[in-house]
Amino acid sequence: MKKIVSLALSAMLATTMVAGLASCGEDKTYTIGLICLHGSESTYDKNFIDAMKTAAKNKGLEDELTIVTGIPEGEECYDTAIDLVEKGCKVIFADSFGHEAFMLQAAEENPDVQFCHATGTMAHTENVSNFQNAFASIYEGRYLAGVAAGMKIVEMHKANTLKESNYTSTAKDNIKIGYVGAWPYAEVKSGYTSYYLGVKSVLAEENLGVTMEVQFTNSWYDEAAERSAAQNLISRGAALISQHADSMGAPSACEAAGVPNVSYNGSTASACPNTYIISSRINWVPYFEYMIDCTINGKEIDTDWCGGLGTGSEYTDESGAVVLTELGSAAAAGTAEKLVEVRNKLKAGTVNVFDTTTFTVGGVILTTYLADVNTDSAFTPDTESIIDGVFAESKHRSAPYFDVNIDGIVDLTNAS
Prior knowledge:
Shape: globular
CATH topology of the largest domain: Rossmann fold
Radius of gyration: 22 Å
Distance between the termini: 58 Å
CATH architecture of the largest domain: 3-Layer(aba) Sandwich
């Protein structure tokens, strides 16, 4: 059993470290530390910050939480983790992929402290007992967001409000959409592919096709680049835009152009009242509460935790780790009912996001695929990931490893 030191609040007044700044004051012992790549200006980091504050409050530990923001993916992460250890934190969570190696180093040097990390790939192979990874089957949320987008596209097609440039053919049977991606990593590819397949499933019911162009910014957070990418996709004829990038760049470009938008990590309804449809996100509250409970009670934390859809029947159910926001004013009629229908099929297993009969690669249905699950420096494919006709995303490890380039999705980086 891991050594757990019970902590008591200091009776003396103290200060906390918030937004990356340590204030002057007397020392205080903390239970929980959160390390963020950016601050609340990033929709990605804000999702973690809000969830951790909620979890700490729910556990009566809001005064024992310290949040450090603006920590790059370098030695600064290690230094911050060690500083939090010295402040007495018994469980420390970092939210960005590039933090992982530095969190692992800190874990190896501090076996009495729990180190947890989002989106990482190393915990299940490194076997460091106090280092854990966590993620969620967000591809299911992305798929559902794609269903909502598909409903909007069908509505616009039937109302004849799409432009000629939104179609890829004179027959008007294939519609172009766009996607702003941060990096060409498996996490982003898994997300935009599941989203695309959700859109495709709805359009197929109307005998329509869809082509999605993807433009990468090569940054998790670059508002100017994300806005520019969205504007370029719109100029190329995208009828609707979604994203896996962390600023308001793409949604604001959509609002300015009057193009429907599906965001990520939270609602953009207030900033984009005329174009916002829906957002999917990971709800980190269940994991954070679990992580805190295990630490306080001396229990093992799962090495590689993966959360899923909640137990409720409504599409907005937040009991699980994969959630959708309320629909925006731009959503098509009937979308809520469709989302409930598809969500129930996902939970029942009658619909699988990566059913290999629903997509092709070079015109061929995949029957076998080795994915890079046990990551090494060469990213060597090592694990068969098609099981019973479905790509088994997040089954071999929590972090996504779907990196297949399927037909119908065009990477503008390599497009002629």
